[in-house]
Task: inverse folding
């Protein structure tokens, strides 16, 4: 089965990407050059798919350098969702002494309940040691 061929103008229209932007993506190597040269040059479905992916990532606020990494196979780290009114988050609160309190979000920190207990116990032991050393 033969791949569909697109002209430069068709690729711009189908992707809703401006000609200057498309030329720039090709110039910096983000998008492959067309197949062939001069007026016979054309693009294929893989060009269109890649261009649509670049556009999607770019509109999500991802830098062109990071897009290059993602297209080369690097995993895409999803941006953290912004908190909105009504957002619920569970935190552990450790009161150490007057003026010293610690808040931990175990889920965000990636701590299991046992790891959290060990961490908080270590904080208390470190505080006691500092207090003892300064007396």
Result:
């Amino acid at each position: 089965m033969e791949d569909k061929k697109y002209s430069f103008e068709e690729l711009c229209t189908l992707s809703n990407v401006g000609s200057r932007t498309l030329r720039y993506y090709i110039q910096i190597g983000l998008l492959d050059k067309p197949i062939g040269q001069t007026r016979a040059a054309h693009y294929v479905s893989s060009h269109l798919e890649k261009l649509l992916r670049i556009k999607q990532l770019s509109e999500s606020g991802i830098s062109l350098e990071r897009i290059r990494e993602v297209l080369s196979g690097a995993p895409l780290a999803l941006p953290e969702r912004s908190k909105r009114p009504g957002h619920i988050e569970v935190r552990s609160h450790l009161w150490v002494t007057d003026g010293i309190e610690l808040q931990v979000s175990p889920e965000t920190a990636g701590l299991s309940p046992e790891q959290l207990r060990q961490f908080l116990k270590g904080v208390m032991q470190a505080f006691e040691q500092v207090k003892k050393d300064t007396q």
User: Anything to note?
Assistant: The helical segments are 8-15, 19-27, 45-59, 64-71, 106-109, 113-133.
